[in-house]
Design a protein that fits this description.
Helices cover 49% and strands 16% of the residues. The chain is globular and about 50 Å long. The longest helix has 23 residues. By secondary structure, the chain is an alpha/beta fold. The chain has one domain: P-loop containing nucleotide triphosphate hydrolases (Rossmann fold). The protein binds 2'-deoxycytidine-5'-monophosphate (DC).
Length: 241
């Protein structure tokens, strides 16, 4: 174990509960929580504003050269700054969500983001959450988790997130009234899953040494118990960071 402070990687697909878990974990262990998906989202928002097609690799590359993205971790989550202006809420928009998945397939955009993320996390003392943290950004992270859940559970959570308070536990019934909107959520999540898992560069997959947790039928408390006990064990074995 090195002298530097702890780096925890949490990867997984959309709706697996990564952000909620990362936020709790960071608060519990006094770490900074860095949400890398928010960076792709902020860049996607800029591309949409500048009318650059999210599939236009060259246009996006040029745009990146004049774009500044920063995360400010707080206890409530990350404040996201795009060219110095706060966009924390704007980047949750459905159009931005789909565009973020599309801009993130381009190798030049990924390597720009990975450099930024390494810079932000290099001092350690962080929980970094995303799709490629344990595989690409910090392959030597001290602890890697891959948080997964069934597509049905993830789409239910996303749907509930959009409608109200965040829950990590899928509820079993969706009302008829909500059916159509939920179908849309399910379709979009599936599209993103396909793109995130099948892109050529750093597709979503667990690192070989990641601890995979399927949260489909677990409560937030159960997921946190499991993760916290792994972290505590690691800390006990390593001495303090
Ligand atoms: O975690 P999120 O839903 O906010 O991420 C938005 C998009 O960003 C997601 O569809 C894929 C991309 N992403 C990525 O490619 N690599 C990361 N480390 C984080 C997010």
């Amino acid at each position: 174990m090195s002298e530097r402070r702890l780096i925890i990687a949490i990867d997984g697909p959309a709706g697996a509960g990564k952000s909620t878990v990362a936020r709790h974990l960071a608060a519990h262990f006094g770490l900074l929580n860095l949400e890398t998906g928010a960076m792709y989202r902020a860049f996607a928002l800029k591309a949409l504003r500048c009318r650059i097609d999210p599939d236009d690799s060259e246009g996006l590359h040029q745009l990146a050269a004049s774009t500044d993205i920063a995360l400010e971790p707080t206890r409530a989550g990350n404040r996201v700054l795009l060219d110095g202006a706060e966009v924390t809420d704007l980047i949750r928009d459905a159009e931005v969500t789909q565009a973020a998945s599309r801009v993130s397939v381009h190798p030049a955009i990924r390597s720009w983001m990975v450099d930024l993320q390494r810079e932000m996390g290099k001092a350690g003392g962080v929980v970094m959450e995303g799709r490629d943290i344990g595989t690409v950004v910090f392959p030597d992270a001290d602890i890697k988790f891959f948080l997964d859940a069934s597509p049905e559970a993830r789409s239910q959570r996303r749907y509930e997130q959009a409608a109200g308070p965040i829950s990590i536990t899928a509820s079993s019934d969706g009302s008829q009234e909500n059916g159509k909107a939920q179908d849309e959520v399910t379709r979009e999540l599936h599209e993103r899953d396909e793109r995130d898992r099948n892109r050529a560069q750093s597709p979503l997959r667990p690192a070989p040494d990641a601890i995979v947790i399927d949260s489909t039928s677990l409560t937030l408390e159960q997921v946190l118990d499991r993760i916290e006990s792994v972290v505590n064990e690691k800390l006990a074995r390593a001495g303090s960071y």
